[in-house]
Design brief:
- It comes from Candidatus Gottesmanbacteria bacterium RIFCSPHIGHO2_02_FULL_40_13.
- The chain is of the alpha/beta class.
- The chain has helices at residues 2-6, 33-42, 60-71, 85-90, 119-127, 163-174, 215-221, 255-263, 277-291, 323-340, 344-354; strands at 23-28, 48-54, 76-79, 95-97, 108-111, 132-134, 143-146, 149-150, 157-160, 179-189, 193-194, 197-198, 203-205, 208-209, 212-213, 226-235, 240-253, 268-271, 301-304, 312-322.
- The protein has a 9-stranded mixed sheet.
- A hairpin with a 2-residue loop joins strand 14 and strand 15 (212-213).
- The longest helix is centred in the last third of the chain and has 18 residues, at 323-340.
- The termini are far apart.
């Protein structure tokens, strides 16, 4: 417990010595892309479960709603908009109207709705003394949490990191014992719809606006590390993001030492024979075909290449991030640590195991 507090995490919400049940989580945006994935992932956890889904009448209802309900028949559905109650019922959903009394029925809220829709509900959750993780990437009203790291501060509203932040926090945590300075260049998905309106500049990450990276948020996670975000390039419909890390270390290190530190950390794997994002995707496809799994089993953060270098204080590496996986998993990690007080790195290991993500061998033929 003391170590957890020293890392900045608050006192656990629940006492596992007094409760003999899973922690109950409500998902706002349960019929959205992230919401349905998160409900499915929580269904695999032994200590967490999604018991309530908050939904609305939009195109995703018929696209994902019935599948979500069919796969999780015990999920209770509510809407916060009374005007949509009748339409949802007409579609065949058993939906109730969410009131403040329902906050008592769960241990934690996770809001997966798009940017621009989370602040009001987060404040409502806080007024009812219910901790909430806001996944949309909106900033300014909560503590940034990107397991295994959490920003300093107080309160029960937590802002979840986006794909880029969640990858940088894992790499930075794995190498924190040797790093003094880090520069990151980013290739990410392109999007122009942000906070409910079109913008002139391409935007997809609420922590990284084209040409204007918001570094103070990362510095809250790495207060003693000099971290700089450099170039940001964006292309449409990109699943795998790419980060180019240029790192300075306190002492001389070689490639083997760096790879060992990364490979020991959950959620990340070094693949010496992968030299491109295409190679990473092929590894993913081969493992999926061999395992017969519905979801790709490869860990979502892959370090490409393994070219040896002489001992140096400067290390450069290319990292590939599966944007679909890296967004879902940290919500589960953070929920487990916030609710039960599990050490954040151990929480990540548990999530990886229950999701059946594997660290593939160096080479797959």
């Amino acid at each position: 417990m003391s170590n957890l507090i020293e890392q900045g995490w608050p006192k656990p919400i629940l006492d596992k010595n007094k409760l003999d049940r899973k922690a109950r989580i409500a998902i706002r945006g349960a019929f959205g892309q992230l919401g349905t994935r998160l409900i499915g992932a929580l269904g695999k956890q032994l200590d967490l479960e999604a018991t309530i889904g908050l939904v609305r009448r939009d195109p995703t209802v018929e696209l994902r709603g019935f599948a979500a309900v069919e796969g999780h028949p015990d999920l209770q559905l509510f809407t916060t908009d009374e005007s949509e109650l009748g339409a949802l019922k007409d579609l065949g959903f058993n939906v109730g109207l969410w009131t403040n009394d329902h906050f008592r029925d769960v241990d934690l809220m996770i809001d997966t709705t798009p940017p621009g829709k989370g602040a009001d509900f987060a404040y409502r959750s806080r007024e009812n003394n219910k901790p909430i993780i806001v996944q949309s990437g909106e900033r300014g009203f909560g503590r940034l949490v990107s397991p295994p790291l959490i920003a300093g501060g107080e309160g029960i509203i937590f802002e979840a990191g986006d794909c880029n932040v969640n990858a940088i926090s894992v790499v930075g945590s794995a190498l924190s014992g040797i790093l003094t300075r880090v520069g990151v260049n980013i290739l990410m998905q392109h999007g122009r719809f942000f906070h409910g309106r079109l913008r002139d500049e391409p935007v997809i990450s609420t922590y990284f606006v084209s040409g204007k990276p918001t570094q103070e948020h990362l510095q809250h996670l790495f207060p003693i590390l000099d971290l700089t975000v450099g170039n940001i390039s964006q292309v449409p419909s990109l699943r795998y993001y790419t980060h180019n890390f240029v790192m300075e270390t306190a002492d001389l290190v070689d490639a083997g030492e760096v790879r060992d530190l990364l490979d020991k950390h959950p959620r990340i794997r070094c693949l010496p024979h992968a030299t491109s994002t295409y190679d990473v995707r092929e590894y993913d496809n081969i493992l999926r075909a061999a395992g017969g799994a519905r979801l790709p089993p490869i860990v979502p953060i892959i370090v490409q290449g393994g070219t040896p270098f002489q001992k140096s204080k400067t290390v450069e590496m290319i990292v590939t991030i599966d944007s679909r996986r890296i967004t879902v998993l940290p919500n589960i990690d953070a929920a487990r640590t916030l609710l039960w007080g599990v050490e954040p790195i151990e929480s990540m290991r548990i999530t990886d195991e229950t999701m059946h993500f594997v660290k593939p061998p160096d080479e797959i033929k």
